[in-house]
């Protein structure tokens, strides 16, 4: 007990010091903040990689640093522009160190990963924003879609296109069924967010281990072409990877257009803004919610097939993608579909680039680190508006 | 029953069901989850902070102990407090920036931090030996375990199960933690914790530094996480990254909710119920493969979690008036 109280006193002082320091820092002029942040980032990058080995490199590094600080100081108020400037800073240093070709090559690998993250994140953020449901089972929707495609593509031996369609349809149906059986009744009982969160964890267990029950834990593969590559501007792209990038981006553009241009999309965004207000203004919210699940689960199914086509199927396929997808949702600002979409793609590329400086096995840890840092600096996300956080 | 083979199977199954060796190891696991979840109970049940990274503290505790003892040649007993201190330090590093965030953000940050730790353990091969893990940190414990065993044999019980000494230590620690934490809860400090849970603004208005109290609660959870990590390492005799999946935290939550929120002794009830049911499932003569039975156990776990949250969000034995998940 006494130890606890003693520790208490020390922590009190520690946390006050922390608060004072962060207050002082937040009152500092813009260029100081920008300079400190960019300096820290560049130092980490340089130290993780290597020190510049010539005067020319030192000079270019300084130019990149100064340019980034200048841009950020000018455009202090726009977090998306700051994020872009920081990204440009990283790209510039990587190109300086590793050459344009290597950076572009890994960037392409990152694009296919980013497409998967973005497809997963758009649905997750819509559900999160509209229903206040932190869906830890979303990753397992991806797994579900992947195994549905496997059923059609390998077990029944039909072309993968049918598998994709079947995966999207069945995952969407799963989403609707769960809404009717679980989420709508729980909402009408006024369940709290954490109560629902724990339910999604239980649901994730049921889906993941249901799949393991049926298909076992062995690695399986979809019937896709894994060897052909396409050469483009001296860059090598796997054929399947190219298809994933193209179809993924088409689906993302389609989703974006749907949200921006159709009445349904407008209603979804209205619900995401304020569910009660949307209901008061005459929107049939339960109908829109069902459509939201169709989109969220359908896109998750598609993302799951893509992930399986690029790697292998196993019951934890989707769960392993869940945290980076959450990272994209938070970075994009919860409930903001366009934010999630952009953040997903950027995150995929940055995670892939991080293998320039860290071991490939650590690239996901880099993603989590970005998530934690952004949450600390800007909890409402890069594209989010300031709400209660 | 006329088929001799079938009769034989039933007999084997019954023998296994009364197998002391087996149930002792189940008891050790259940006890480890009690230790693990007392800290979760303090966070979730009494402070109202949803710590989803408890397994990260467990990993840090186990790895720090194993690295210091097996690779740096430290004394085992000296490595324990240092490992607890490292876990608490990590709790503070995570807590300082993220405890100011909304509950859902905090949940995501903690789970991401715990996963980052597991990935680092998997990849920092120089330090952690990667997926192969670390062995040979338990010589000091083995000699203690042997003397406990000899002591019991002297008392007249000759066929002591191999893990029985660890069982005693684990449950001794578990009971001690539950007792101490329950007592802490009725001190002024513990009452402020509940005040923070019920209404943070009101607690602050009374001049209490709510943030510091949350941070202390998290530090205590990190301590129990690290202790659970030592026990897990001793029971496995090795430390590998795979033992520290996010699943462990989720199981901790199931234990917590089965026992009920805001009740430390409930954690023991939850752990005993859960591990008896899960391991007892082995003895149902299901015509299924090992993988399918493993999957079935987790399906049941998931259904229990869904059912509890849908119909009894305060947990099986929790107090409705202390329910904290409603928000």
Observed structural traits:
heterodimer; B: mainly alpha; globular; disordered N terminus
Oligomer: heterodimer
Note the gap between the termini of chain A.
33 Å
The tally of beta strands of chain B, per DSSP, is: 2
**Can you count the helices of chain B?**
14
Rg of chain B, nearest Å: 21 Å
**Helix run count of chain A:** 14
The portion of residues forming beta strands of chain B comes to under 5%
Low-confidence stretches of chain A: 1-8
What does this structure look like?
- The complex is a heterodimer of chains A (389) and B (327).
- Chain A has 389 residues and is mostly helical.
- Chain A has helices at residues 2-27, 30-48, 55-74, 79-131, 138-155, 160-188, 193-215, 239-261, 263-273, 275-280, 285-310, 317-332, 337-353, 363-377, and strands at 229-232, 235-238.
- The radius of gyration of chain A is 23 Å and the shape is globular.
- Residues 1-12 of chain B have low confidence and may be disordered.
- In chain B, 51% of the residues are buried.
- A two-stranded antiparallel sheet of chain B has the order 1-2.
- The longest helix of chain B has 28 residues, at 20-47.
- Chain B is an all-alpha fold and 327 residues long.
- At the A-B interface, helix 1, helix 7, helix 12 and helix 14 of A face helix 4, helix 5, helix 8, helix 11 and helix 12 of B.
């Amino acid at each position: 007990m006494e130890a606890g109280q003693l520790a208490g006193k020390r922590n009190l002082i520690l946390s006050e010091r922390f608060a004072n320091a962060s207050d002082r820092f937040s009152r500092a002029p813009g260029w100081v903040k920008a300079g400190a942040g960019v300096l820290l980032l560049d130092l980490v990058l340089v130290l993780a990689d290597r020190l510049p080995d010539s005067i020319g490199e030192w000079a270019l590094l300084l130019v990149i640093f100064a340019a980034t600080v200048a841009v950020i100081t000018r455009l202090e108020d726009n977090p998306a522009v700051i994020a872009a400037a920081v990204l440009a800073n990283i790209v510039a240093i990587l190109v300086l160190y590793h050459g344009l070709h290597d950076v572009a090559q890994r960037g392409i690998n990152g694009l296919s990963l980013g497409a998967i993250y973005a497809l997963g994140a758009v649905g997750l953020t819509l559900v999160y924003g509209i229903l206040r449901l932190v869906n830890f089972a979303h990753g397992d929707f991806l797994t579900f879609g992947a195994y549905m495609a496997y059923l059609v593509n390998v077990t029944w031996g039909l072309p993968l296109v049918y598998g994709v369609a079947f995966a999207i349809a069945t995952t969407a149906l799963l989403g609707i069924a769960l809404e009717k059986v679980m989420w709508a009744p729980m909402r009408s009982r006024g369940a709290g967010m954490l109560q629902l969160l724990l339910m999604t964890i239980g649901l994730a267990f049921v889906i993941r281990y249901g799949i393991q029950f049926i298909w076992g834990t062995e690695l399986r593969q979809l019937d896709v072409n894994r060897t052909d590559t396409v050469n483009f501007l001296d860059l090598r792209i796997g054929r399947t990877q190219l298809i994933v990038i193209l179809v993924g981006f088409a689906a993302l553009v389609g989703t974006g257009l749907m949200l921006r241009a159709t009445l349904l999309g407008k209603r979804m965004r209205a619900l995401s803004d304020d569910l009660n207000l949307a209901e008061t203004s005459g929107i049939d919210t339960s109908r829109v919610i069902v459509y939201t699940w169709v989109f969220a689960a359908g896109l998750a199914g598609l993302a799951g097939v893509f992930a399986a086509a690029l790697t292998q199927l196993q019951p934890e396929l989707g769960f392993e993608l869940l945290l980076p997808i959450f990272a994209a949702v938070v970075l994009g600002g919860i409930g903001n579909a366009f934010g999630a979409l952009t953040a997903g793609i950027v995150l995929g590329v940055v995670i892939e680039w991080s293998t320039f400086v860290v071991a490939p096995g650590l690239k996901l840890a880099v993603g989590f680190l970005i998530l934690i840092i952004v949450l600390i600096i800007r909890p409402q996300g890069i594209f989010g508006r300031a709400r209660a956080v | 029953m006329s088929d001799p083979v079938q009769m034989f199977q039933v007999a084997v199954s019954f023998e296994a069901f009364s197998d002391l060796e087996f149930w002792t190891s189940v008891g050790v696991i259940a006890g480890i989850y009690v230790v693990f979840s007392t800290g979760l109970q303090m966070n979730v049940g009494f402070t109202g902070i949803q710590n989803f990274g408890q397994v990260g503290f467990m990993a840090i505790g186990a790895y720090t102990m194993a690295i210091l003892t097996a690779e740096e040649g430290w004394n085992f007993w000296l490595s324990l407090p240092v490992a607890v201190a490292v876990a608490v330090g990590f709790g503070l590093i995570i807590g300082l920036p993220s405890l100011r965030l909304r509950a859902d953000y905090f949940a995501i940050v903690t789970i991401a931090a715990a996963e980052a730790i597991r990935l680092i353990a998997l990849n920092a091969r120089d330090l952690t030996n990667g997926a192969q893990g670390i062995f040979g940190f338990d010589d000091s414990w083995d000699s203690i375990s042997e003397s406990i065993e000899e002591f019991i044999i002297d008392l007249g019980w000759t066929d002591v199960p191999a893990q029985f000494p660890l069982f005693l230590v684990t449950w001794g620690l578990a009971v001690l933690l539950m007792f101490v934490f329950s007592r802490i809860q009725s001190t002024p400090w513990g009452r402020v914790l509940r005040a923070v849970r019920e209404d943070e603004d009101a607690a602050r208005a009374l001049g209490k530094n709510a943030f510091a109290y949350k941070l202390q609660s998290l530090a205590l959870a990190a301590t129990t996480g690290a202790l659970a990590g030592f026990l897990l390492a001793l029971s496995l005799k090795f430390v590998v990254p795979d033992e520290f999946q996010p699943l462990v935290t989720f199981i901790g939550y199931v234990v917590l909710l089965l026992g009920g929120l805001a009740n430390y002794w409930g954690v023991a009830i939850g752990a005993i119920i859960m591990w008896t049911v899960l391991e007892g499932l082995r003895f149902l003569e299901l015509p299924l493969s090992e993988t399918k039975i493993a999957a079935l156990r987790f399906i049941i776990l998931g259904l229990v979690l869904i059912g509890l949250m849908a119909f009894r969000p305060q947990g099986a034995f929790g107090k409705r008036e202390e329910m904290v998940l409603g928000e």
